[in-house]
Structure formats: structure tokens, C-alpha cells
UniProtKB/TrEMBL annotation:
GO molecular function list: beta-glucosidase activity
Family: Belongs to the glycosyl hydrolase 3 family.
Keyword Hydrolase: yes
Protein name (database record): Glycosyl hydrolase
Domain Fibronectin type III-like: 588-671
Species name: Bifidobacterium scaligerum
Annotated signal sequence range: none
Gene3D superfamilies: Glycoside hydrolase family 3 C-terminal domain, Glycoside hydrolase, family 3, N-terminal domain, Immunoglobulins
Stretches of the chain forming a coiled coil according to its record: none
Any one of the GO BP annotations: glucan catabolic process
Alphabetical UniProt keywords: Carbohydrate metabolism, Glycosidase, Hydrolase
């Protein structure tokens, strides 16, 4: 039987899940159910019914470095190798659709989920994601890039409205997805929870139809984030294919009713069902569901892949000579005969991934202390001792610092390896960080170790930037991020010189949080998250506004040194030479930045105000290549131009445009160190048109002083954030009930808030279930309860929130029995009984 021959109800049933992780198939049409699983950096195949927050047991799988760490490799081929391993494990664990990668733009360093995202730059994010997607899908498994789109904070993530101007959205927040779709052809894509300019992402026709399908050519399945569907009917109209998890049969009835009433075209319903059926048919694999991943060589081989990815992603941030070193030789790599004191709780009890739905049950686990001991004979680097150094939960304990200082000061110690960073409470789905600082007890430890006079090498464990008050006092610093289950051995191999570090930062590290462009309005505590900084995020802001940073975008050191020369440009790209002028082999990331046409006609001016063209940052990354060179080797590198190099989005014309004029091409190792600069004449399709002077502070990137009037010019409309609601609706989060007039609703919200804080303090980890409930709007209850709650019952719950307690409870009880009866009728109809 063909899909088109199915009844309206049968097609509608295919557009929502059958369980937490399974789709609904249709036996009559030969369409099987398929399995979805979280998997940005490891397959989380849960047992039984499972849950979507990573709390339930899952089958062992390789835990690879997180996306925020992998991005520091700037190596799409390495991401592809990781994707091949991920896809193989997904296949063997019976997973058809792997929910990842996450490639939302890192708008602010405090986003709790930044460790799952690649970069502040869409070119890096898109190219790295494309590599991973190609690798995953080479196994006949669908990748599912997420969260589409403009999703930048965890607070109120299910009930937030991202308010953004069209040009910034297109150029910054959508371009990474565009690259992934065009270059890797993912079979599925996941929408985000939030609204985008007032329309939920899963029912946003502008995003899903006009841009994703019509402009980019995507022909796959669009799945909601779990509980992220608002209206099933609106989603089908807009291009949303599948809502997850199971909402029971409520959505089926809504879709049937809409078709019957003529408010929904059956053709749209059939098209969406066809997209779901396509995934079911394309990802059918033989022999899936094996449970012997640990019984063969796959786990061991993939552990090696995870180590290789971690090695390629480690970033050397500092490497000075020890004060006592008269030859001024850098501390790293550690020389044979060096005796190291290993200090830090995370050196013995590792943290290598974040919290939430991406958490993987790793097949093995390493720690830095054991790995140093394991290579002592082969490297000549020995461990003089270990000290915990700090309490993992941040409780002050001077005796731990004293013990570490005594070990560091000992005559048996030459160098101190201090492993510090963010704890498990700091980086999690559902929770944004409150500060860019690491725990004070760890800062106190590093200060005390540096005061001993011994060289201190900091190994930093964190999924996103942190403030470094002691940076000038330490000799060296290696950033390993959240480096996966093989991260410890990778770090030790870098420290001992078995691997030459080649990672470069995929995001800017500010000196302090207040330097961040959006620090004054992030995260948005109300309904509207207004992106008033426009395109000036990350390096685009720091370079344009001339704000000093700790590390510029793209920064990374090596045990080798590199020189650039002989730059030329032609109609199709730029070419130059790179020389390794050291005695050791190494790799570096060469980066191409462009600046728009200047008034002088002689290249980019020193500030944005002298630009002749539209508003834009002083420079933007447009290409990169990771180059490996033997000692004293020279190679010629070419970076080709592409559709993204010179374009900007013309909002008035609703199209991409390219300005004619003399542009500036700059090549180097990061956004600030660009030794090669050359002018280049671009023959575009529009003349350079100066930016509107009414943009005011935007012209110099000074977004912290932008006025509401200037923002209205950027957005093309007046933008006003609403105040607190006086009446709660189905899309206001449970957390907002703290302001309810009703005692019951107010008590529920306050109790949940206190419980989450208490659990986090007691266990050292976030209470993910409670956080999810607090961020959840009532309408999600009808999407997350497998049919136990329908929309009428949600209305009754909202009545309770608005102080109508008894009326709401009565409606809830009556609605429950009415819904149960309706579900039985629908199930009987679908089963043709």
C-alpha cells in the first residue's frame, strides 16, 4: 500500500512519537518505526522507556570530546573520523537517527550548554558540523543537527522568544546550519524550543519552508526538540515533520479535525508523513540492536579515535620558561628526568563531559595521574606525588592547599601540574552559568602553588571560557576542554611531547565577563531575549570595538613556530606559503579574514566608521585550513572563495548581495595576528552603500551604548520588552508562577526552585528533572505525557496558575476522564478494530 492511500488519521499518527525515543510506523504501508537517540559526542541508547535528560541507564558507548572541544581542532576531517565511529556505534546499538551535532552560535560564554556547541563563528561551526554529519551518515544512520534556530540561553529555554534582526539572524545564526545542510545533506534536523520573533521554531514557516527547504534545498525530516512542539497543526503547515516524544493521540485528533474543517491541507499532511517515512526507509539497517559492543574490538578502536580527537583539540595557551631556567627553554614539553607533582581533584577523578541529555555511559575512563605513571618509563617523566588540592564542591579547606604546597615545594618536585576547572554544576543543559570564574578554592590553590617559585603548568578542564586571575603567575597552560573518555592520556601525551599541540580556540576568551558584548542583558529573565548587540558577538565585537581580550579568536600555540609569506589573490581565492621554521614537526591553523570595501580604496580602514559599505565588523573569518609541516618544511596553501566570502544579506531586497569595491584579505594564526594583508578588488552585484548614520553606536561596534532608537534602525522596527505577565498563559514557564496570585501555583514554583538548589548543593550536580519542569510551559505537558494530558487539561492547569484553584482542579479531573475516553476511541480507529 502506498502512503497516499492511508487514512488521514494514519498519516497524522506518523507525525508524533510512539514513545520517548521511537517513531510510529505503519504496517499497512510497510513503514517501520525507527529509533532516535542523543548523540552529539556519544550514543546515549537508553534502556527501557528511558528519559530525555540523561538520567536513566544507557548502554555503554564511547564518550568522545564535546563539540566545544572538537571545534578547537579546526579539522573537519578529524570531526568526520569521529562521526564515522559515532555512526558505527549508533548502527550497532539499534539507533536510526543520532540527535546531533549541536551547532548553535555561542552568543555568550555563560550559556550552560556551550560545551555542546562548536563556535561563536558560523564558518567554523558549519564546517565542523558538516564533517561530523558526513561521518555519521556514512553508516546508513541519519544525523540530526540542532537546535534550529537562534537558541542561545538555557534559562526559560522552552518559553523564550529570541528577538533578532533579519540580517544578523541570516549571517550569524543561520549560516552554520546552511553550510551543514549544503555540504553534508543531513537527513534530519531538529528545531529549538524557543520562539523566533514571536513564532515557535517548530512552526516557523519562514525558517522551515522559506529558508531551510526553498533556499537551502533541504528535503529531510524536521523533528521537534523533546516537548518543543506547540501546535501540531501549525507545525505541519509550516514544515515541521515529527513531534517528539509521544503526545499520545491528542495531536492525531487535532490534525484530523483541521483537515476535516478545511484549515489544513491533506497534501501538507501527506508531505510531512512522507518525510518521516523517508527516514524510516533510508535508515533501515540489518543486524542492528547488537548488545556486544564491549565484547569486540570496536570499543578499543574507538577509544583510540577519541584520544586522537582529544589530542588534535588540545590548545596550548601559554608556554614560558621557568624563572630558574637560565637557558630560557619553555617548560613544555616536559623533559626526560622531570619530576612532576600532580595536583587537583580532577587529576584523579576526571571530568570529561557535561551534564544533561548528552551525558554518555563511557566504555572506559582515564585520569591524568594514572596516565603520568603509565608513561614514566617511556618518557622519563616521573610523578613525585599527588595532592587533591581543593574540595570538588568548592568548600574552603586550607589543609588541602597546604598539602599541595608542601608537595610542590619539595626537593623531589621540579614542575607542578595543576588540574583545575569547572565542576559538574557549572555546565549543564537547563542551567546557565552564573559567573565566568572557576571556584575560588581552585584560584586560591593556583596562587599558592605559583608562590612556591616552582614552574606551574595548569591543565584546564572546562567547556567554555573562564576568567584567569593567576594567568601571569603560571609558566604554562594547556586547555583540554571537556575531552572525552580518552582525554587524560591525550593530555599527558601533549605535556610530555609525544604529541605537538595544534588546537586553536574556536571562541574568544575575554579578560572578564563584563567585557562581553551581551553581558548587560544575558540571560534574558523575561519572555523576550532581545539580541540588541546585532552581529557584534565574539571577535566581531572585540576587534571592532577594540576591546582587549585574554585570548583572541583562533589563538593557539605549538612546540613549533610558523612563518607566513608570499600572499597573492585571484578571482577564485587566496594563496600563500607557510613555513615551519623550528626543529620539530607540528601543525597550525591558517585563517582567512576579510574586511569590506573602504572609502579610501586602499583596503580596510582602521575603524568601522571609515568603511564605505554596509554595517559590518572590521573583519570576519571566511576560510581556514589546518596545515601539518615537518621541521623546516614550507608548503603553499590555498583557500578558495565561496558563496559565503563576500556576501551580506540585503533585508530590503530580501536576498544575498555582494558589494563591489576594494576589500581587504588578511591571513594569519588568529583574529589579531594577521601578518599577510592584501587588497582585493571585488566585482559584486551592488555598489557599496554606506551604512545609515542613524545606526549610531553600531557603526563602531559599541553595542554597550546602543540606544533603543538605534536598535530600532537595526531591527527595522521598534523593539520593546514586555513586563511581567499579570495573567499566565499556556506558554509561560512554571518558574514564572512564583508571581502567581494563587497560593497553590506559587507554592509549587517556590518549592521546585528550592528543591533544585538544595539538590545541586548536596550532590554537586544540577537536578535536571526539576530544572526541566521549572523551564517548561504548561503546554508542554500535553506533549510530554504520552497522552495523559491534553490541551483542555492544560487550560485547567493554567487556571490554577491564575488563582482559580478549585475551578482548575475540577476541570483537570473532568478533562482527564474525557481525554482517556477519546484516546481509546482514537487507538481503536487506528488499529482498524
Amino acid at each position: 500500500m502506498e502512503l497516499e492511500e492511508l487514512s488521514v488519521g494514519e498519516k497524522a499518527a506518523m507525525l508524533s512519537g510512539a514513545s520517548e525515543w521511537d517513531s510510529r510506523g505503519n504496517e499497512r504501508a510497510g513503514i517501520p518505526s525507527f529509533v532516535m537517540s542523543d548523540g552529539p559526542h556519544g550514543v546515549r541508547r537508553q534502556l527501557g522507556e528511558g528519559d530525555h535528560l540523561g538520567l536513566g541507564a544507557s548502554k555503554p558507548a564511547t564518550c568522545f570530546p564535546t563539540a566545544g572541544t572538537v571545534a578547537n581542532s579546526w579539522d573537519p576531517a578529524l570531526a568526520e573520523a569521529m562521526g564515522e565511529a559515532l555512526g558505527r556505534e549508533a548502527h550497532d546499538l539499534g539507533v536510526n537517527v543520532l540527535l546531533g551535532p549541536g551547532l548553535n552560535i555561542k552568543r555568550n560564554p555563560l550559556c550552560g550548554r556551550n560545551f555542546e556547541y562548536y563556535s561563536e563563528d558560523p564558518i567554523v561551526a558549519g564546517r565542523m558540523a558538516a564533517g561530523l554529519i558526513r561521518g555519521i551518515q556514512s553508516n546508513g544512520v541519519s544525523a540530526c543537527p540542532k537546535h534550529f534556530a537562534v537558541n542561545s540561553q538555557e534559562l526559560r529555554r522552552q518559553a523564550s522568544n529570541s528577538v533578532i534582526d533579519e540580517r544578523t539572524m541570516r549571517e550569524i545564526y543561520l549560516t552554520g546550519f546552511e553550510i551543514a545542510v549544503r555540504e553534508a545533506a543531513p537527513m534530519a534536523i531538529m528545531t529549538s524550543y524557543n520562539e523566533v520573533n514571536g513564532v515557535y521554531a517548530h512552526e516557523n514557516k519562514h525558517l522551515l519552508q522559506n529558508i531551510l527547504r526553498d533556499e537551502w534545498g533541504f528535503d529531510g525530516m524536521v523533528v521537534s526538540d523533546w516537548g518543543g512542539s506547540n501546535s501540531a497543526v501549525a507545525a505541519v503547515k509550516a514544515g515541521g515533520s515529527l513531534e517528539m516524544p509521544s503526545p499520545g493521540y491528542t495531536s492525531v485528533r487535532e490534525l484530523e479535525g483541521a483537515v476535516k474543517a478545511g484549515t489544513l491541507s491533506e497534501a501538507d499532511l501527506t508531505a510531512r508523513a512522507g518525510e518521516v517515512a523517508k527516514i524510516a526507509r533510508l535508515t533501515r539497517t540489518e543486524g542492528v540492536g547488537r548488545n556486544d559492543l564491549l565484547k569486540d574490538d570496536i570499543a578499543a578502536a574507538h577509544h583510540v579515535v577519541a584520544r586522537r580527537v582529544a589530542e588534535g583539540s588540545a590548545v596550548l595557551l601559554k608556554n614560558d620558561a621557568a624563572a630558574s631556567d637560565t637557558d630560557a627553554v619553555p617548560v613544555l614539553p616536559l623533559k626526560p628526568g622531570t619530576r612532576v607533582a600532580v595536583v587537583g581533584d580532577m587529576a584523579k577523578t576526571p571530568r570529561f563531559q557535561g551534564s544533561g541529555s548528552s551525558k554518555v555511559n563511557a566504555t572506559s575512563e582515564e585520569n591524568i595521574l594514572d596516565e603520568f605513571n603509565a608513561v614514566a618509563d617511556s618518557t622519563g617523566v616521573t610523578v613525585s606525588g599527588y595532592a587533591q588540592g581543593y574540595d570538588r564542591q568548592g568548600t574552603a579547606n586550607q589543609s588541602l592547599i597546604d598539602e599541595a604546597v608542601a608537595l610542590a615545594s619539595s626537593d623531589s618536585t621540579d614542575v607542578v601540574i595543576a588540574v583545575v576547572g569547572l565542576d559538574e554544576r557549572s555546565e549543564s543543559e537547563g542551567l546557565d552559568r552564573s559567573t565566568m570564574a572557576i571556584p575560588r578554592v581552585q584560584n586560591d590553590l593556583v596562587d599558592a602553588l605559583a608562590a612556591t617559585g616552582k614552574p606551574v603548568v595548569v591543565v584546564l578542564v572546562a567547556g567554555s571560557p573562564v576568567e584567569l586571575p593567576w594567568f601571569e603567575s603560571v609558566s604554562a597552560m594547556l586547555y583540554i576542554g571537556l575531552s572525552g573518555q580518552a582525554g587524560a592520556s591525550a593530555a599527558v601525551r601533549v605535556l610530555t611531547g609525544q604529541v605537538n599541540p595544534s588546537g586553536h580556540l574556536a571562541e574568544t576568551w575575554p579578560l572578564r565577563y563584563n567585557d562581553c558584548p551581551s553581558s548587560g542583558w544575558y540571560p534574558a529573565i523575561g519572555r523576550d531575549a532581545i539580541y540588541r548587540e546585532g552581529p557584534f558577538i565574539g571577535y566581531r565585537y572585540y576587534e571592532t570595538a577594540d576591546v582587549p581580550v585574554r585570548f583572541p579568536f583562533g589563538y593557539g600555540l605549538s612546540y613549533a613556530t610558523f612563518a607566513y609569506g608570499n600572499v597573492t589573490a585571484d578571482e577564485t581565492g587566496v594563496q600563500f606559503t607557510v613555513t615551519n621554521d623550528s626543529d620539530v614537526a607540528g601543525a597550525t591553523v591558517v585563517q582567512l579574514y576579510v574586511a569590506g570595501p573602504s572609502r579610501s580604496g586602499e583596503g580596510a580602514a582602521a575603524d568601522a566608521g571609515a568603511a564605505a559599505g554596509v554595517l559590518r565588523p572590521v573583519r570576519e573569518l571566511k576560510g581556514f585550513v589546518k596545515v601539518e609541516l615537518a621541521a623546516h618544511e614550507t608548503t603553499t596553501v590555498r583557500i578558495d572563495f565561496d558563496r559565503y566570502t563576500f556576501r551580506h544579506f540585503d533585508v530590503a531586497a530580501n536576498r544575498w548581495a555582494m558589494e563591489s569595491g576594494i576589500w581587504t584579505l588578511a591571513v594569519g594564526s588568529d583574529a589579531e595576528h594577521l601578518p599577510l594583508v592584501t587588497p582585493f578588488a571585488v566585482a559584486g552585484d551592488v555598489d557599496a552603500a554606506p551604512a545609515d548614520p542613524a545606526l549610531g553606536h553600531y557603526l563602531a561596534g559599541d553595542v554597550k551604548h546602543v540606544t533603543d532608537a538605534e536598535m530600532a534602525v537595526l531591527f527595522g522596527r521598534e523593539v520593546i520588552a514586555p513586563g511581567k505577565p499579570t495573567v499566565f498563559g499556556v506558554n509561560d514557564p512554571i518558574s514564572s508562577w512564583v508571581d502567581s496570585r494563587g497560593f497553590v501555583a506559587r507554592t509549587i514554583a517556590k518549592t521546585l526552585t528550592k528543591r533544585e538548589a538544595a539538590v545541586r548543593q548536596k550532590t554537586g550536580a544540577p537536578d535536571l528533572n526539576t530544572l526541566f519542569i521549572l523551564n517548561m510551559p504548561p503546554r508542554a505537558m500535553s506533549k510530554m505525557t504520552q497522552g495523559m494530558v491534553d490541551s483542555a487539561m492544560v487550560d485547567a492547569i493554567v487556571a490554577i496558575a491564575n488563582g482559580h484553584t478549585f475551578r482548575g482542579i475540577g476541570g483537570l479531573i473532568a478533562g482527564f476522564f474525557r481525554n482517556q475516553s477519546a484516546n481509546k476511541r482514537t487507538a481503536k480507529e487506528l488499529n482498524h478494530d
